[in-house]
Design a protein that fits this description.
about 80% helix, about 375 residues, 16 helices
């Protein structure tokens, strides 16, 4: 695997966060905390996280159904391989590898599924923000530390801002889908300075996204996707609570709202692009959120380490199993995905969003229909 500057920078950032997280830890005490943990509760948390993969698969099938027909088994395989890519190569690689893993067996163009993966990401991001923001309304924490209470005030304010942004984002997606032709026409006119290949790729991607967003105008599909998303993140929140409880942390210190608080900040830490499933930032953010609620530093760090394993270990295991079974590799899938997208864009007939649908050629209509 070639190491470019971006990869080297992400590794260095990860190393800095790992050092920040670990340099004051007493690892013998961490080991003792892990040994004392309730493994039945950890097992239940593990089962819940595995269950989330199946919920993701069902949701993905709903999103992809307007574009292509495929089996649940193929979607599951692509999903866990995608999570393996996220763990090994980072979040950006997962968006490329997951559609490529699906296309290898199902003969579905990755470009037709990229948009569904991105729409999934939008739904997940909005749901996490909604969970986190609404939870903050009910999250009560008192501390004699004035600085801690000041930080909590800023977190609540930020949550309210994110919630407002999410509502605006949902309306924006709805409006984009409803007025996609005029929106693409306006965008096409605004980007004469952009290289043709890049503009064509951008317009094509937005067309895919617009098609995937058809669920926003279909009450039945919208209800199904939102229900799957709510169920998914409820399962994740309960799994967080189970891991916290497995370390003997009482409910009075970390109630369900506290677990959602931890989940929100750990997701925020995961945004930092470092290898190993945001190793370092995830651990630092998770331990800091628990320490904020008065949990001992060693115990908080122990929870963060095990929580990270519980989240990523099963998906990575299943993903590696399918990679070995199918004779594939993450690097090859990434290359296949990038190559197939380039081929689709190169083969695409010249398309102008300003061109009315009634005036498009038969080839253009077939291409758009195939997306």
């Amino acid at each position: 695997m070639k190491l470019n500057l971006k990869t080297i920078a992400s590794i260095l950032i990860g190393v800095l966060f790992v050092y920040w997280f670990a340099y004051k830890l007493n690892w013998l005490e961490v080991w003792l905390e892990v040994r004392k943990a309730n493994w039945e509760q950890l097992g239940l948390a593990l089962a819940l996280f595995i269950g989330t993969y199946f919920v993701r698969v069902l949701r993905w099938q709903t999103l992809i159904s307007p574009l292509a027909k495929t089996s649940l088994k193929a979607l599951f395989r692509a999903t866990v391989i995608g999570f393996s890519a996220l763990f090994v190569m980072g979040r950006a690689a997962e968006i490329i590898v997951r559609p490529a893993a699906l296309s290898v067996k199902e003969k579905i163009r990755p470009s037709a599924t990229y948009a569904t993966v991105m729409v999934e990401r939008v739904f997940d991001m909005i749901m996490v923000v909604v969970f986190f923001s609404v939870n903050l309304v009910f999250f009560e924490h008192t501390s004699h530390d004035a600085d801690a209470m000041k930080i909590l005030g800023w977190i609540k304010f930020s949550g309210a801002v994110f919630l407002a942004a999410s509502v605006a984002g949902i309306y924006g997606l709805y409006a984009f889908r409803k007025h996609r032709e005029s929106a693409l026409t306006a965008l096409d006119k605004k980007l004469p300075w952009m290289p043709v290949a890049i503009k064509k790729g951008l317009i094509s991607l937005l067309q895919h996204i617009a098609e995937s967003l058809s669920i926003l105008h279909d009450a039945r599909e919208m209800t199904i996707v939102v229900s799957y998303t709510v169920l998914l993140w409820l399962m994740v929140a309960v799994a967080h609570l189970l891991v916290v409880r497995a370390f003997g942390i009482p409910y009075v210190l970390v109630p369900f709202t506290g677990a959602v608080f931890v989940m929100g900040l750990s997701m925020l830490g995961s945004v930092v692009p470092t290898p190993g499933g945001a190793t370092g930032p995830f651990h630092t953010a998770t331990a800091a959120s628990l320490a904020f609620m008065g949990i001992d530093h060693t115990k908080a760090a122990s929870v963060a380490i095990i929580l990270h394993l519980v989240i990523f270990a099963p998906a990575t295991f299943f993903g590696m199993y399918y990679l070995v079974k199918e004779g594939l590799s993450l690097e090859n899938l990434k290359h296949i995905g990038e190559q197939q997208v380039e081929e689709v864009e190169q083969d695409a007939p010249e398309f102008s969003a300003a061109q009315p649908p009634s005036e498009r050629s038969e080839q253009q209509q077939e291409h758009i229909a195939a997306l």
